[in-house]
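[09:14] KT: can someone run the structure on this one? pasting the chain below
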Amino acid sequence: MEDIRIAAAQINCPAGKLPDNLAKHQEYARRAARAGARIICFPETSLSGYPMTDRLPLELAQPLDGQLAHALADLSAETGLVILAGMVERDLSGVLYNTQLVADAGRIVGAYRKTHVGCSETHRFSHGDEFLTFSCGRTTCGIQICYDMHYAEMTRILALRGAEVIFAAYASADPCTPAGHAAKRTRWLKYQPARAFDNSVYVVAVNQVGHNGSIEFPGTSLVYSPIGEIIAEAKPLVEDLLIVDLTAAALEEKRRDALQFFTHARRPELYGELSRPSRAPAAQGPGISNTLDHPHDDDYWRQAALKNG
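[09:31] RB: done, structure tokens below
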């Protein structure tokens, strides 16, 4: 890793407002470039907006060589930034994915399809099947989208593949109120610092903020050091741009400590059960056992979405 200045854009991304959302990406990317950042991460489905009705995913979806992707590639060429931004993707066969694009030097150089699709999304998005790492200079980065971050195995695999910074893009709902922000922050502090500490990586978590039709987002974007400490936090409940310096020295210090860099003492020969189906009892409750009973009940899925991130 090398020292790198990153940006995280906590923005409002109304579903279906593609020209407005793109304009906001341009504004925030230009601000980040002026501040000396080399990479900027936008939230989950930031270009499309997060769809909460059955008709919207099809209306918003674009292919990886569509107008949104081309505009993002052009923006990376203009600003000199590596840009991570989310969209609803439609592949050549018409399948829909929740995808985070990576644009660099005028090209789309990566596209990560969300691999862990929560119960509120299974009737809208297909699962991706591949993890993604990419480089920004001498820094290796990985991407996780919202619900992915609850799966420690994924973060560990990205770290084993060399990731030093994990960008976690969210569209994680809660009321856009002080109480909603506090609830989201409390929930995130239960697991995000552990992903950073256990894997000796930086974690950059960036969420949407504000109203999006019938759903709200409280922001709560945070950046963690490799020891799991908060090193930057966005203003609550409003749009904000975090500019944060991530240093190679802090990462190396954590990884030099044999008692705190756990990768070297792994026992993969004992972990075979992780690759087999779970033997745990099936989860019960709203959004779990009754998934197929509510395929078109948007209020039901709106409530279930609150539990996913």
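[09:33] KT: thanks! The chain is about 25% helix and 25% strand.
[09:34] RB: yep, looked fine to me
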